[in-house]
């Protein structure tokens, strides 16, 4: 599903639960008590409108509708019997999630103000030093588009050498700090881009079907034309420049941004790989093909290493190539709450590798408490990044409030402690089509209360997260799903019976977490080491045994974290089984 346009959509539901609104993609339907889940893939890429149960008919009661601007009414029905089966089948249908490098699960930082600054290289270089000085574990830095500026405007693949006099020296410093660098890329060339005539001569733009000239539209800070990724000439031009200007300067990954193809020319047409087609029929395909072009060039440049790309938009199938996020969120407590729910929708729609900009991209500078709570919640998502643009030039960073730096550092450190568990879930998502994040009804569909409105989610099957999404809250009420006999507090081991609402302490320094009876959690061993490592070599297994009697299993996945050698058997699956009763754990 596009992260910006809802042109092509996957809608899943169950026929045995009363509808409770539209907060997730899972849509219970109240007409048949079959207990079977299903999904609908609306296979149409033009602009569409969805009404997911808010309309009421005097004859039929609440109903849902789907209206599309053009093209075929074509959809695929996917049956259960469980929601897990439906989501996995959708992944089979549209393609499973890319299995990227382990470092892509680490903490990342970016900010438009850094790359936009006149002394950008110096500021970014100093940022590397600050991470070390403040004991912030970090794996990636994302270059904002400021590195491409000429004057106040942005020109893809153009290096501003006044602000970045020596890009290889800067990327080498990142490499020495064990941090990967990602660069922002945009698919539109402004009219005065130095390379515009070159691309036009190659016919590589999306063109006006009447005039044959580039289809000009407003883009950011000027008018420009978009690369046509259904045209081999457009793909070739993109990949050659990606290789020369980005990968050739020590940057390892492409951040495919602003690729919604919001072109206002109604006559805009794509080459369609030899069969011309109106752009309005295939806009989300352009985002997918842009991302695929970046992915393939990265793979070509380093054939032994697993590519990692990011995209802001796409259609079903985009998960085969990229990680994505919920877009340019704003700084507010409401954003925190609704970002979490948006992420669960995306996760149930086959886009498992997702996240949100920590503390909000735009809007006011985040208050200290919101920074902490956002960091805690996003530390439990596959994509974990602080990204900001503030009108006063403030950069959202872990150390922006010294009083809460220990709490922010602790949340980032928690993510690295959980890396063995996260990486195993990541591998399972890529091979089995199982979401990493999921609403509680995914794992406990037989408990009707899990369909109630809540702000909780499962991280895999062994961790229940209850992020704090309200200002000044120092406790957190949540419902503990029935299914396991009970739940353990992750921190102190306090046991709670299942099927009840409990109130947990939630000091600012801690996000409430619980593990079900039978949980097996592989973690890194050290809790106090804050080096900038993607992962420590040591391991421990935390066990949460059944209090009466039971058996449980977990498979820890390990490989070198970077290459394709796992395909040749250079990996390990460590299968743990725990049997416990009232007196014994085996």
Structure, explained:
The protein is α+β, with helices and mostly antiparallel strands and 586 residues long. 24% of the residues lie in helices and 25% in strands. The chain contains 12 helices and 33 strands. The chain has an 8-stranded parallel sheet with strand order 19-18-15-10-7-6-21-20. Strands 22-23-24-29-26-27 form a 6-stranded antiparallel sheet. A 3-stranded antiparallel sheet has the order 1-2-5. Strand 13 (217-219) and strand 14 (222-226) form a beta hairpin. It is globular and about 80 Å long. Residues 1-9 and 14-32 have low confidence and may be disordered.
What key phrases describe this protein's structure?
single chain, alpha+beta, eight-stranded parallel beta sheet, 25% strand, 586 residues, disordered N terminus, 12 helices, six-stranded antiparallel beta sheet
Helix-strand blueprint:
Elements: E1 9-14, E2 37-42, E3 48-57, E4 61-68, E5 75-79, H1 83-94, E6 107-109, H2 112-116, H3 120-133, E7 140-143, E8 149-150, E9 153-154, H4 167-176, E10 180-185, E11 188-190, H5 196-201, E12 207-208, E13 217-219, E14 222-226, H6 232-246, E15 253-256, E16 268-270, E17 277-278, H7 283-301, E18 309-311, E19 322-323, H8 333-348, E20 355-357, H9 368-378, E21 383-386, H10 405-417, H11 419-432, E22 437-438, H12 440-443, E23 457-459, E24 464-465, E25 475-480, E26 486-489, E27 495-497, E28 500-505, E29 513-516, E30 519-524, E31 539-544, E32 550-558, E33 572-580
Parallel strand pairs: 6-7, 6-21, 7-10, 10-15, 15-18, 18-19, 20-21
Antiparallel strand pairs: 1-2, 2-5, 3-4, 8-9, 11-14, 12-16, 13-14, 16-17, 22-23, 23-24, 24-29, 25-28, 26-27, 26-29, 30-31, 32-33
